[in-house]
Amino acid sequence: MSDEVASLLKSLSLVTVPDDEVSPVVRNVIDEFKSSKSFLWRIYGSKKGSSPIFLVADSPAFQAAASSLKKCDVIIIFSGVEPILDSICSALLSSKSLFPAMGPVPDTVSESIYSPSDCVEKVYFPSAQLSGDRKVLKDKLVFLILYCMLAHETTHIMNGHLDLFQARSGERCLMEFGPSSKNVTSLERQTLEWDADVGAAEMMLRFALDPEITTVSGRSKWTIKPLGRFGDADTSIHMALAATTILALVLTMSKGSEESYGDDHSHPHGVHRGHHAHVALEHFLSFRTGFNRRDSSDQRLFNSVIEAWYQVFYQYLDESFSPAWSVDGLRRAAGRFEEYKKQWSILHPDLQAHSRGVTIAPASPQVHPAHPQSGILG
Ligand SMILES: [Zn+2]
Questions:
Q1: Of 89, 221, 279, 280, which one has the greatest count of Cβ atoms within 10 A?
Q2: Measured in angstroms, how far is the CA atom of residue 66 from the centroid of ligand 1?
Protein backbone atom coordinates (compact mmCIF):
# COMPACT_ATOMS: atom_id res chain seq x y z
CA MET A 1 0.00 0.00 0.00
CA SER A 2 1.42 3.38 -0.98
CA ASP A 3 2.12 6.09 1.59
CA GLU A 4 -0.65 8.32 0.31
CA VAL A 5 -3.23 5.51 0.56
CA ALA A 6 -2.02 4.65 4.07
CA SER A 7 -2.25 8.30 5.06
CA LEU A 8 -5.78 8.58 3.62
CA LEU A 9 -6.91 5.56 5.68
CA LYS A 10 -5.28 7.00 8.79
CA SER A 11 -7.02 10.34 8.30
CA LEU A 12 -10.35 8.49 8.06
CA SER A 13 -9.49 6.26 11.06
CA LEU A 14 -10.06 3.21 8.87
CA VAL A 15 -8.41 -0.18 8.77
CA THR A 16 -8.86 -2.39 5.72
CA VAL A 17 -9.96 -6.00 5.67
CA PRO A 18 -7.00 -8.16 4.50
CA ASP A 19 -7.49 -9.36 0.92
CA ASP A 20 -7.90 -13.00 1.89
CA GLU A 21 -10.59 -12.11 4.45
CA VAL A 22 -12.79 -10.04 2.15
CA SER A 23 -16.20 -11.66 1.79
CA PRO A 24 -16.39 -13.72 -1.44
CA VAL A 25 -19.45 -11.74 -2.54
CA VAL A 26 -17.68 -8.39 -2.25
CA ARG A 27 -14.55 -9.87 -3.84
CA ASN A 28 -16.62 -11.09 -6.82
CA VAL A 29 -18.17 -7.69 -7.36
CA ILE A 30 -14.82 -5.92 -7.18
CA ASP A 31 -13.24 -8.48 -9.54
CA GLU A 32 -16.11 -8.17 -11.98
CA PHE A 33 -15.91 -4.42 -11.80
CA LYS A 34 -12.18 -4.32 -12.33
CA SER A 35 -12.43 -6.71 -15.25
CA SER A 36 -15.11 -4.63 -16.95
CA LYS A 37 -12.61 -2.47 -18.70
CA SER A 38 -15.29 -1.21 -21.01
CA PHE A 39 -16.79 0.66 -18.06
CA LEU A 40 -13.52 1.90 -16.73
CA TRP A 41 -11.71 2.72 -19.94
CA ARG A 42 -12.24 6.38 -19.26
CA ILE A 43 -10.07 6.08 -16.18
CA TYR A 44 -7.52 3.73 -17.71
CA GLY A 45 -4.85 5.76 -19.40
CA SER A 46 -6.14 9.01 -18.00
CA LYS A 47 -3.92 11.36 -16.04
CA LYS A 48 -3.13 8.82 -13.32
CA GLY A 49 -2.53 6.03 -15.78
CA SER A 50 -4.28 3.29 -13.82
CA SER A 51 -7.68 2.11 -12.69
CA PRO A 52 -8.81 2.95 -9.15
CA ILE A 53 -7.76 0.90 -6.14
CA PHE A 54 -10.70 -0.85 -4.46
CA LEU A 55 -10.46 -1.28 -0.68
CA VAL A 56 -12.79 -2.86 1.87
CA ALA A 57 -12.87 -0.99 5.19
CA ASP A 58 -13.32 -3.02 8.34
CA SER A 59 -16.45 -1.35 9.72
CA PRO A 60 -20.09 -2.34 10.24
CA ALA A 61 -21.38 0.93 8.78
CA PHE A 62 -23.43 1.25 5.59
CA GLN A 63 -20.91 3.53 3.98
CA ALA A 64 -18.75 3.99 0.89
CA ALA A 65 -16.25 6.60 -0.23
CA ALA A 66 -14.26 7.78 -3.23
CA SER A 67 -10.95 9.57 -3.16
CA SER A 68 -8.76 11.24 -5.74
CA LEU A 69 -5.19 11.25 -4.44
CA LYS A 70 -2.12 12.67 -6.18
CA LYS A 71 -0.99 9.38 -7.68
CA CYS A 72 -4.06 7.17 -7.62
CA ASP A 73 -7.80 7.00 -7.13
CA VAL A 74 -9.32 4.96 -4.33
CA ILE A 75 -12.81 3.52 -3.92
CA ILE A 76 -13.74 2.25 -0.46
CA ILE A 77 -16.67 0.03 0.44
CA PHE A 78 -17.32 -0.77 4.10
CA SER A 79 -17.53 -4.40 5.15
CA GLY A 80 -20.91 -3.77 6.85
CA VAL A 81 -22.65 -3.05 3.55
CA GLU A 82 -22.93 -6.60 2.25
CA PRO A 83 -24.44 -8.26 5.36
CA ILE A 84 -26.99 -5.44 5.63
CA LEU A 85 -27.98 -5.82 1.98
CA ASP A 86 -28.05 -9.60 2.32
CA SER A 87 -30.37 -9.40 5.33
CA ILE A 88 -32.72 -6.90 3.73
CA CYS A 89 -32.91 -8.72 0.38
CA SER A 90 -33.53 -12.02 2.19
CA ALA A 91 -36.33 -10.46 4.19
CA LEU A 92 -37.92 -8.94 1.09
CA LEU A 93 -37.73 -12.18 -0.89
CA SER A 94 -39.28 -14.11 1.97
CA SER A 95 -42.55 -12.37 1.13
CA LYS A 96 -45.15 -14.43 -0.71
CA SER A 97 -46.24 -11.40 -2.70
CA LEU A 98 -42.99 -11.31 -4.68
CA PHE A 99 -42.68 -14.02 -7.32
CA PRO A 100 -45.54 -16.20 -6.01
CA ALA A 101 -44.68 -18.89 -8.56
CA MET A 102 -41.09 -19.08 -7.45
CA GLY A 103 -41.36 -21.64 -4.71
CA PRO A 104 -41.82 -21.79 -0.97
CA VAL A 105 -41.07 -18.88 1.30
CA PRO A 106 -39.10 -19.65 4.46
CA ASP A 107 -40.24 -19.45 8.03
CA THR A 108 -38.99 -16.21 9.48
CA VAL A 109 -37.77 -15.20 12.89
CA SER A 110 -38.67 -11.64 13.70
CA GLU A 111 -36.45 -8.84 14.91
CA SER A 112 -33.13 -10.49 14.54
CA ILE A 113 -31.56 -8.15 12.02
CA TYR A 114 -31.01 -4.48 12.19
CA SER A 115 -28.85 -1.97 10.44
CA PRO A 116 -25.86 -1.63 12.73
CA SER A 117 -24.53 1.79 11.89
CA ASP A 118 -24.37 5.27 13.26
CA CYS A 119 -25.37 6.48 9.86
CA VAL A 120 -28.52 4.51 9.47
CA GLU A 121 -31.63 4.39 11.60
CA LYS A 122 -32.11 1.18 13.50
CA VAL A 123 -34.61 -0.88 11.56
CA TYR A 124 -35.60 -4.46 12.21
CA PHE A 125 -36.14 -6.97 9.47
CA PRO A 126 -37.16 -10.56 9.96
CA SER A 127 -34.37 -13.05 9.58
CA ALA A 128 -34.98 -15.30 6.61
CA GLN A 129 -33.00 -18.28 5.37
CA LEU A 130 -33.79 -18.54 1.69
CA SER A 131 -33.28 -21.60 -0.45
CA GLY A 132 -33.58 -22.61 -4.10
CA ASP A 133 -34.54 -19.99 -6.67
CA ARG A 134 -35.23 -17.36 -4.03
CA LYS A 135 -31.70 -17.63 -2.71
CA VAL A 136 -30.26 -17.47 -6.23
CA LEU A 137 -32.26 -14.31 -6.93
CA LYS A 138 -31.24 -12.77 -3.60
CA ASP A 139 -27.56 -13.39 -4.37
CA LYS A 140 -27.94 -11.77 -7.79
CA LEU A 141 -29.66 -8.73 -6.29
CA VAL A 142 -27.03 -8.24 -3.59
CA PHE A 143 -24.36 -8.48 -6.28
CA LEU A 144 -26.12 -5.92 -8.47
CA ILE A 145 -26.70 -3.44 -5.63
CA LEU A 146 -23.04 -3.64 -4.60
CA TYR A 147 -22.13 -3.19 -8.26
CA CYS A 148 -24.36 -0.12 -8.38
CA MET A 149 -22.64 1.35 -5.30
CA LEU A 150 -19.16 0.87 -6.80
CA ALA A 151 -20.41 2.37 -10.07
CA HIS A 152 -21.69 5.40 -8.12
CA GLU A 153 -18.28 5.92 -6.49
CA THR A 154 -16.51 5.44 -9.83
CA THR A 155 -18.74 8.10 -11.39
CA HIS A 156 -17.72 10.55 -8.67
CA ILE A 157 -14.15 10.13 -9.92
CA MET A 158 -14.81 9.82 -13.66
CA ASN A 159 -17.10 12.79 -13.95
CA GLY A 160 -14.69 15.08 -12.15
CA HIS A 161 -16.63 15.49 -8.88
CA LEU A 162 -13.66 14.65 -6.66
CA ASP A 163 -11.25 16.89 -8.54
CA LEU A 164 -13.79 19.70 -8.46
CA PHE A 165 -13.98 19.29 -4.66
CA GLN A 166 -10.22 19.25 -4.48
CA ALA A 167 -9.89 22.43 -6.57
CA ARG A 168 -12.45 24.20 -4.42
CA SER A 169 -11.32 23.20 -0.97
CA GLY A 170 -8.34 20.88 -1.09
CA GLU A 171 -10.47 17.91 0.00
CA ARG A 172 -9.52 14.66 -1.64
CA CYS A 173 -12.10 12.27 -0.24
CA LEU A 174 -15.86 12.16 -0.43
CA MET A 175 -17.63 9.99 2.15
CA GLU A 176 -21.13 9.06 1.08
CA PHE A 177 -22.68 9.75 4.46
CA GLY A 178 -20.76 12.72 5.70
CA PRO A 179 -20.75 16.49 5.50
CA SER A 180 -19.97 18.32 2.28
CA SER A 181 -17.08 20.67 1.91
CA LYS A 182 -17.73 24.21 3.13
CA ASN A 183 -17.03 25.42 -0.38
CA VAL A 184 -19.69 23.25 -1.97
CA THR A 185 -23.34 24.19 -1.45
CA SER A 186 -25.99 21.62 -0.55
CA LEU A 187 -27.56 21.99 -3.97
CA GLU A 188 -24.20 21.48 -5.68
CA ARG A 189 -23.45 18.39 -3.61
CA GLN A 190 -26.92 16.97 -4.22
CA THR A 191 -26.52 17.64 -7.93
CA LEU A 192 -23.24 15.72 -7.94
CA GLU A 193 -24.94 12.86 -6.07
CA TRP A 194 -27.68 12.88 -8.69
CA ASP A 195 -25.05 12.85 -11.46
CA ALA A 196 -23.32 9.88 -9.77
CA ASP A 197 -26.66 8.04 -9.44
CA VAL A 198 -27.38 8.60 -13.13
CA GLY A 199 -23.90 7.35 -14.08
CA ALA A 200 -24.38 4.30 -11.86
CA ALA A 201 -27.79 3.57 -13.40
CA GLU A 202 -26.26 3.56 -16.87
CA MET A 203 -23.35 1.31 -15.85
CA MET A 204 -25.63 -1.12 -14.04
CA LEU A 205 -28.12 -1.30 -16.91
CA ARG A 206 -25.28 -1.89 -19.33
CA PHE A 207 -23.93 -4.63 -17.10
CA ALA A 208 -27.37 -6.29 -16.74
CA LEU A 209 -28.30 -6.14 -20.44
CA ASP A 210 -24.78 -6.84 -21.70
CA PRO A 211 -25.72 -5.26 -25.05
CA GLU A 212 -23.72 -5.14 -28.22
CA ILE A 213 -22.16 -1.70 -28.33
CA THR A 214 -21.31 0.30 -31.42
CA THR A 215 -20.59 3.97 -31.92
CA VAL A 216 -22.68 6.13 -34.21
CA SER A 217 -21.34 9.64 -34.83
CA GLY A 218 -19.50 9.58 -31.53
CA ARG A 219 -22.44 8.38 -29.39
CA SER A 220 -22.62 4.82 -28.14
CA LYS A 221 -25.53 2.74 -29.35
CA TRP A 222 -26.69 -0.44 -27.63
CA THR A 223 -28.29 -3.37 -29.38
CA ILE A 224 -30.08 -5.63 -26.92
CA LYS A 225 -29.20 -9.31 -27.28
CA PRO A 226 -31.76 -12.09 -26.66
CA LEU A 227 -30.02 -12.96 -23.40
CA GLY A 228 -28.40 -10.57 -20.94
CA ARG A 229 -26.62 -11.44 -17.70
CA PHE A 230 -29.83 -12.33 -15.90
CA GLY A 231 -31.96 -13.84 -18.66
CA ASP A 232 -34.02 -12.08 -21.33
CA ALA A 233 -34.15 -8.30 -21.63
CA ASP A 234 -37.27 -7.95 -19.44
CA THR A 235 -35.65 -9.95 -16.66
CA SER A 236 -32.46 -7.90 -16.86
CA ILE A 237 -34.47 -4.67 -16.75
CA HIS A 238 -36.45 -6.05 -13.79
CA MET A 239 -33.22 -6.77 -11.93
CA ALA A 240 -31.88 -3.27 -12.57
CA LEU A 241 -35.16 -1.70 -11.42
CA ALA A 242 -35.30 -3.90 -8.31
CA ALA A 243 -31.69 -3.10 -7.39
CA THR A 244 -32.21 0.68 -7.68
CA THR A 245 -35.49 0.48 -5.77
CA ILE A 246 -34.00 -1.52 -2.88
CA LEU A 247 -30.93 0.72 -2.71
CA ALA A 248 -33.07 3.86 -2.70
CA LEU A 249 -35.21 2.48 0.10
CA VAL A 250 -32.17 1.50 2.14
CA LEU A 251 -30.92 5.05 1.65
CA THR A 252 -34.14 6.50 3.07
CA MET A 253 -32.87 5.08 6.37
CA SER A 254 -29.73 7.19 6.14
CA LYS A 255 -29.44 10.13 8.46
CA GLY A 256 -27.29 11.82 5.83
CA SER A 257 -30.15 12.34 3.42
CA GLU A 258 -32.82 14.98 3.52
CA GLU A 259 -35.46 12.92 5.23
CA SER A 260 -37.75 15.85 5.74
CA TYR A 261 -37.33 17.29 2.24
CA GLY A 262 -35.11 20.00 3.72
CA ASP A 263 -32.35 21.72 1.79
CA ASP A 264 -29.42 21.55 4.12
CA HIS A 265 -28.30 18.01 3.46
CA SER A 266 -25.60 16.43 1.42
CA HIS A 267 -27.81 13.89 -0.31
CA PRO A 268 -31.19 13.96 -1.99
CA HIS A 269 -33.95 12.06 -0.22
CA GLY A 270 -33.61 8.32 -0.90
CA VAL A 271 -37.05 8.21 -2.46
CA HIS A 272 -36.14 11.01 -4.85
CA ARG A 273 -32.97 9.15 -5.69
CA GLY A 274 -35.05 6.09 -6.49
CA HIS A 275 -37.40 8.04 -8.76
CA HIS A 276 -34.48 9.72 -10.48
CA ALA A 277 -32.68 6.40 -10.96
CA HIS A 278 -35.81 4.92 -12.56
CA VAL A 279 -36.10 7.93 -14.84
CA ALA A 280 -32.42 7.49 -15.72
CA LEU A 281 -32.87 3.77 -16.48
CA GLU A 282 -35.79 4.50 -18.76
CA HIS A 283 -33.87 7.35 -20.34
CA PHE A 284 -30.81 5.24 -21.12
CA LEU A 285 -32.96 2.45 -22.49
CA SER A 286 -34.68 4.92 -24.79
CA PHE A 287 -31.60 6.90 -25.72
CA ARG A 288 -29.14 4.08 -26.22
CA THR A 289 -31.39 1.38 -27.68
CA GLY A 290 -34.36 3.21 -29.15
CA PHE A 291 -36.66 1.43 -26.62
CA ASN A 292 -40.13 2.89 -26.97
CA ARG A 293 -41.19 4.43 -23.70
CA ARG A 294 -44.73 4.81 -24.94
CA ASP A 295 -45.09 1.08 -25.42
CA SER A 296 -47.63 0.10 -22.82
CA SER A 297 -46.10 -3.28 -21.98
CA ASP A 298 -42.76 -1.63 -21.20
CA GLN A 299 -44.50 0.91 -19.00
CA ARG A 300 -46.35 -1.86 -17.22
CA LEU A 301 -43.07 -3.62 -16.53
CA PHE A 302 -41.60 -0.48 -14.97
CA ASN A 303 -44.63 0.32 -12.86
CA SER A 304 -45.41 -3.18 -11.65
CA VAL A 305 -41.82 -3.99 -10.69
CA ILE A 306 -41.24 -0.78 -8.78
CA GLU A 307 -44.56 -0.90 -6.98
CA ALA A 308 -44.17 -4.53 -5.93
CA TRP A 309 -40.79 -3.91 -4.31
CA TYR A 310 -41.93 -0.74 -2.57
CA GLN A 311 -44.92 -2.50 -1.10
CA VAL A 312 -42.90 -5.36 0.30
CA PHE A 313 -40.25 -3.03 1.71
CA TYR A 314 -42.81 -0.96 3.55
CA GLN A 315 -44.18 -3.98 5.35
CA TYR A 316 -41.08 -3.70 7.49
CA LEU A 317 -40.83 0.04 8.01
CA ASP A 318 -42.92 2.25 10.23
CA GLU A 319 -44.81 5.30 9.02
CA SER A 320 -41.93 7.69 9.59
CA PHE A 321 -40.32 6.42 6.38
CA SER A 322 -43.36 6.98 4.23
CA PRO A 323 -45.23 8.30 2.31
CA ALA A 324 -42.63 7.41 -0.24
CA TRP A 325 -44.37 5.93 -3.17
CA SER A 326 -46.96 8.68 -3.43
CA VAL A 327 -48.13 11.36 -5.84
CA ASP A 328 -46.62 13.93 -3.50
CA GLY A 329 -43.26 12.17 -3.51
CA LEU A 330 -43.30 12.00 -7.30
CA ARG A 331 -44.19 15.68 -7.63
CA ARG A 332 -41.39 16.72 -5.30
CA ALA A 333 -38.93 14.42 -7.06
CA ALA A 334 -39.88 16.00 -10.41
CA GLY A 335 -39.24 19.46 -8.95
CA ARG A 336 -35.82 18.40 -7.68
CA PHE A 337 -34.99 16.89 -11.05
CA GLU A 338 -35.41 20.32 -12.67
CA GLU A 339 -33.22 21.98 -10.00
CA TYR A 340 -30.45 19.42 -10.44
CA LYS A 341 -30.52 19.74 -14.22
CA LYS A 342 -30.21 23.54 -13.91
CA GLN A 343 -27.39 23.29 -11.36
CA TRP A 344 -25.65 20.63 -13.45
CA SER A 345 -25.53 22.91 -16.49
CA ILE A 346 -24.03 25.68 -14.31
CA LEU A 347 -21.35 23.21 -13.11
CA HIS A 348 -20.86 21.73 -16.60
CA PRO A 349 -17.74 23.74 -17.62
CA ASP A 350 -16.05 22.94 -14.28
CA LEU A 351 -17.01 19.26 -14.49
CA GLN A 352 -15.83 19.03 -18.08
CA ALA A 353 -12.50 20.56 -17.06
CA HIS A 354 -12.09 18.06 -14.21
CA SER A 355 -13.54 14.94 -15.85
CA ARG A 356 -11.11 12.17 -16.71
CA GLY A 357 -10.35 13.05 -20.30
CA VAL A 358 -13.86 12.21 -21.44
CA THR A 359 -16.67 14.18 -22.87
CA ILE A 360 -19.35 14.18 -20.21
CA ALA A 361 -22.95 14.48 -21.37
CA PRO A 362 -23.31 17.59 -23.53
CA ALA A 363 -24.50 20.82 -21.92
CA SER A 364 -27.22 20.94 -24.58
CA PRO A 365 -28.64 17.43 -25.04
CA GLN A 366 -29.33 16.25 -28.56
CA VAL A 367 -31.16 13.37 -30.22
CA HIS A 368 -29.20 10.16 -30.73
CA PRO A 369 -27.82 10.01 -34.29
CA ALA A 370 -28.78 6.30 -34.53
CA HIS A 371 -32.48 6.87 -33.86
CA PRO A 372 -33.27 10.56 -34.16
CA GLN A 373 -36.96 9.83 -34.70
CA SER A 374 -37.31 8.84 -31.02
CA GLY A 375 -36.90 12.49 -30.05
CA ILE A 376 -35.11 11.43 -26.85
CA LEU A 377 -32.34 13.85 -25.91
CA GLY A 378 -29.12 12.85 -24.22
ZN1 LIG B 1 -22.15 9.81 -3.80
A1: 89
A2: 8
